[in-house]
Design a protein that fits this description.
The chain is an alpha+beta fold. The protein has four helices and four strands. A four-stranded antiparallel sheet has the order 2-3-1-4, covered by helices on one side. Strand 2 and strand 3 form a beta hairpin. It comes from Opuntia streptacantha (Prickly pear cactus).
C-alpha cells in the first residue's frame, strides 16, 4: 500500500507539466489585464500664495501654467482675497496618478527659480480621485 501513494503526492514539490503550463497562463493573463487597466486620474485644487500684495498675480498664474509635464492638465483658476490687499490663487488641475506626483510638482517645479520669485507657498486644498 505504501508504494501506491508515491504517484499521488510529490513531497519535494516538483511541478508537473500541467502545473507549469497553468502557472504560465495565469502570469500571462495577469500581465495582459494590468496593461489594459488605465491608471487613475485625480482632480486637485491647488492654492498658490504670493509673497505680498505687490506680487503680479497675472505673472504668477503664467509661471504656474508654464509648468508642463505628461499627465498634467491645468484647469480654471480664480483669485481669492486673503486680507490686507493680498490675494491667493486657487487653480484646478487634473493629473494621471501614475505619471504625476503632486508633491514633486510643488517641490521641483513651483518652489524653485523662477517660480519662487512669485510664489511663497503652495497647498493642496482638495484632492479627489476621478
Amino acid at each position: 500500500p505504501a508504494g501506491d501513494d508515491d504517484d499521488d503526492l510529490d513531497l519535494f514539490g516538483d511541478e508537473t507539466e500541467e502545473e507549469k503550463k497553468a502557472a504560465e497562463e495565469r502570469e500571462a493573463t495577469k500581465k495582459a489585464s494590468s496593461k489594459k487597466k488605465e491608471s487613475g486620474k485625480s482632480s486637485v485644487l491647488l492654492e498658490v500664495k504670493p509673497w505680498d500684495d505687490e506680487t503680479d498675480m497675472k505673472k504668477l498664474e503664467e509661471v504656474v501654467r508654464s509648468v508642463q509635464m505628461e499627465g498634467l492638465l491645468w484647469g480654471a483658476s480664480k483669485l481669492v482675497p486673503v486680507g490686507y490687499g493680498i490675494k491667493k490663487m486657487q487653480i484646478m488641475m487634473t493629473i494621471v496618478d501614475d505619471l504625476v506626483s503632486v508633491d514633486n510638482l510643488i517641490e521641483d517645479c513651483l518652489m524653485v527659480e523662477p517660480a519662487s520669485d512669485y510664489i511663497q507657498s503652495c497647498d493642496i486644498v482638495a484632492f479627489n480621485k476621478i
